[in-house]
Amino acid sequence: MADVSNIGQLTMPTLQQSDDTISVNYSAVFEATSNTKNIVKLQNAVDESIFKHTFGKRNGVSLYAVKKSLREEYSYKSVRSLKPISRYVAFAIKNGKFQQITGHGASGTFRLNRDIHVSHVRRLGGLRKVSAQSHAIQRQRENKQTKHNTIA
Fold it and tell me: What GO molecular functions are on record for this protein (predicted)?
């Protein structure tokens, strides 16, 4: 069964006539019907892969390297996710989320924009603080256990 609960919210394709040309706006319909959860997961995986490859380095990463790392880490099927990854990378370069290092579009090398890179580093630093605190708590527990387990 098709979900028709949000039928009033969807916008139908609009025809725009100007100078004997007709253009159809399908973007609203495509966005409403696309599976956004999987797209967001794929975009986050691509961002994470690019961050891992470019962290602490001056050079960028190619589209081939991103696809290869996604296949190794997340076991994405290359045939199914080949086109969406390329589209997302080209879109992110165009919008400024990725910084182009060499080449044109998705065919060159790129890295995360500096602002986004810094936010990833801050998030990573926060995770390191939490893990350091948890390690300190774990060491304290081990010290208490060794004190109680010693035979005097």
Answer: DNA binding
Residue with tokens 């990725």: 98
Nearest residue to 44 via CA among 129, 123, 134, 101: 123
Domain ranges of the chain: 114-152
Q: Identity (one letter) of the amino acid at 51? A: F
Quote the strand ranges of the chain, DSSP E. 14-18, 21-25, 61-62, 98-102, 109-112
Through-space distance between the first and last CA atoms of the chain, rounded to whole angstroms: 73
What is the CA 94 to chain-centroid distance, rounded? 16
Q: What pLDDT digit, counting tens, does each position of 20-65 carry? A: 544 444 444 444 445 677 777 877 788 888 878 777 777 888 888 8
